Amino acid sequence: MHCIHPRSRVYFSSESSCKRSLMSFPLKLNGKLLGVIEVYDKNTPSLVFTEDDISLTEHFSNIVACAINANKMFYHFHDLKTKQQFLDCVLLRRFKEIDNEAVKSVMNCRHKHNFQRITDFRFDPRVIPEKHVLCVCLTIFESSGLIKKLKIKHQTFVRFLLKLKEAHSALPFHNWTNSLLTFHFVFICVNQYNLIKDKFVTVFEYFTLLMAALCHGLDHRGPTTMFEMTTGTVLASLYSSPGSISQKHHLSQALRLMTYPDCNILQQIDNEEFYKFAKLLGNMIEGPQLQILTWQIAIRRCKNWKNC
Questions:
Q1: Helices marked H in the chain — which ranges?
Q2: Do residues 278 and 255 lie in contact, with contact meaning Cβ atoms separated by under 8 Å?
Q3: 145-154: long-range pairs with CB below 8 Å, 24+
Q4: Whole-angstrom Cα distance, residue 291 to residue 272?
Q5: For the segment 152-203, what is each residue's pLDDT rounded down to a tens digit?
Q6: Is the dihedral of CA 270, 275, 278, 280 positive or negative?
Q7: Most exposed: 203, 204, 210, 228, by fewest CB within 10 Å?
Q8: What is the pLDDT of residues 217-258, one digit of tens each?
């Protein structure tokens, strides 16, 4: 649509804003109209739009259409992610936001945490004061070099430990204390018998073992009791059989917590390593592999049975 002297034409002079030259072109992608762009009053050397201008607008419209579509997809996935985070909060019943002061209190703790015989089988982790339990867990991971090797941010890992503790149920068993005792036992087995040094266990497997120990009772709903186990009820069979609903729930909640934005301790590993980690973690949590493995390791590495 061209008009060198717009006010000489009745049609243009009737408009509130007269344009010397006007060109509009659609923004289409996969047959869908995403918008329309109008350009007008072209400057010198040519006061009118040429065939070359039309050719350029076709390429420009494709680029802009792709950019608009990518932007819409970004907001769509952002909305889905927000809904997923809300769902995570609902599914983790004891899940709550951790304030920065709680994270700083663990990271800036000045206690030496040099509890005697902590690397001994006879040490009872329950003697550790409640306010220093997470500090000891953090020290174990740091002393093993796992945080540095897996490139985990300290603040992210501390936030993960805080949320992990809160996500455990307040039950007589399958609680945070039980997970802490299991975690300490795995730590003792691997370090007492030099399993990493002797290449019985890799660093990645050691990290997964510790995670399985901390998460094997995560968000336990307490449906199974010793009475049901002894009498062999249907409920006991459902929740205590290998690969049962309860173990799958623990695994699901553990992976959900590990990949939550504020405490994503796995963000630095690639997709292949994440798949291996999730599969190995599932084998340890869903079946009796964790218990069998730790006892086999202890028996195999013990030179004198009386000292075990």
A1: 10-13, 51-91, 100-107, 133-143, 146-149, 154-166, 176-192, 203-215, 226-231, 234-240, 245-258, 271-286, 289-301
A2: yes
A3: 145/203, 146/203, 146/206, 146/207, 146/210, 149/203, 150/207, 150/265, 150/268, 150/269, 151/268, 152/265, 152/268, 154/107
A4: 26
A5: 999 999 999 999 998 888 888 789 999 999 999 999 988 888 888 888 889 9
A6: negative
A7: 203
A8: 888 877 666 666 677 777 776 666 655 677 888 888 899 889
Residue 6's pLDDT is 47
Encoded tokens for 178: 């039980």
Stated pTM of the model:
0.67
Looking at 57-61, 81-85, 88-92, 159-163, which range is the least confident one?
A: 88-92
Question: In angstroms, what is the C-alpha Rg of the chain?
Answer: 31
Rounded distance between C-alpha atoms, residue 19 and residue 42, angstroms: 10
Angle at the Cα of 74 from the Cα atoms of 70 and 76, rounded to 5 degrees: 115
Report the distance separating Cα 265 and Cα 267, nearest Å: 6
Name the region of 17 (left: φ>0; alpha: ψ -120 to 50; beta: rest). Answer: beta
- Cα separation of 103 and 153, whole Å? 12
Q: How far apart are CA 12 and CA 87, in angstroms?
A: 57
| Span 192-225, pLDDT tens digits | 888 888 888 899 999 999 999 999 888 887 766 6
The residues, any chain, with a CB within 8 Å of residue 34's CB and separated by 6 or more, are 27, 28, 65, 68, 69
**Residue 45: is the preceding peptide bond cis (ω within 30°)?**
yes
Residue 113, sorted as left (phi over 0), alpha (psi -120 to 50) or beta, turns out to be: left
Look up tokens 């010397």; give the residue. 20
